[in-house]
Q: What sequence folds into this?
């Protein structure tokens, strides 16, 4: 039986970027670009029409930027995964996009095979953020906002000891399999813990768990 095809929407105001990504993703048998959009507002309309599994979302765009589009998109029922497209110089924008609920980010000069791999990982519920880069990004807001650290610690205090351990491991960028090995748990048990973390921490994805952990100064 063939693997299910992952449906992708590309939202970027640069037509060359959209074309390049389409060519890259079109070469993978399990990926299909179902639509393109030139700004966030068009992206929201395209999501409603084409119902993609993953949206590759640029940040700086006219009419509606990627942060606002991501925020609106993730308020919808059963939204797609959102991966932010960025240049590394836009750190503040990336952090805001992750806080809005994006599943991660890709640099625009990422190698083609890594872009394909990142999309597959996000659909599978695995992290696709570099731990070192993620830490660098998130430290910007934790250092500037001490109150965030107190709020994060209060949220983490609601967890059991094992849930706390899993949350910290997610914050370190570990996959489910790596967490299972590190904490001597089964992968299904790790997934169950992460599901409870979503509820207890009031988050929607692993990135927001990582944000909370980093805000608390635990990684």
A:
């Amino acid at each position: 039986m063939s693997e299910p095809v992952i449906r992708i929407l590309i939202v970027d105001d640069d037509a060359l970027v959209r074309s390049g990504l389409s060519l890259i993703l079109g070469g993978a048998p399990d990926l299909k670009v179902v639509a393109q959009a030139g700004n966030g507002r068009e992206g929201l309309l395209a999501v409603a029409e084409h119902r993609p599994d993953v949206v590759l979302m640029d940040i700086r765009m006219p009419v509606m930027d990627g942060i606002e589009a991501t925020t609106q998109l993730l308020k919808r029922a059963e939204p797609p995964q959102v991966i932010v497209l960025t240049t590394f110089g836009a750190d503040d924008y990336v952090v805001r996009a992750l806080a809005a609920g994006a599943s991660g980010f890709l640099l625009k000069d990422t190698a083609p095979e890594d872009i394909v791999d990142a999309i597959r990982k996000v659909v599978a519920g695995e992290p696709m953020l570099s731990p070192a880069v993620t830490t660098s990004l998130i430290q910007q807001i934790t250092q500037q906002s001490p109150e965030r650290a107190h709020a994060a610690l209060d949220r983490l205090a609601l967890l059991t000891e094992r849930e706390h351990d899993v949350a910290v491991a997610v914050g370190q960028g570990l996959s489910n399999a790596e967490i299972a090995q590190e904490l001597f748990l089964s992968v299904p048990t790790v997934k169950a813990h992460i599901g409870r973390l979503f509820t207890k921490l009031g988050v929607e994805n692993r990135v927001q768990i990582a944000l909370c952990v980093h805000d608390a100064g635990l990684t």
User: Anything to note?
Assistant: The two ends are 41 Å apart (CA to CA). The chain has a mean pLDDT of 84.
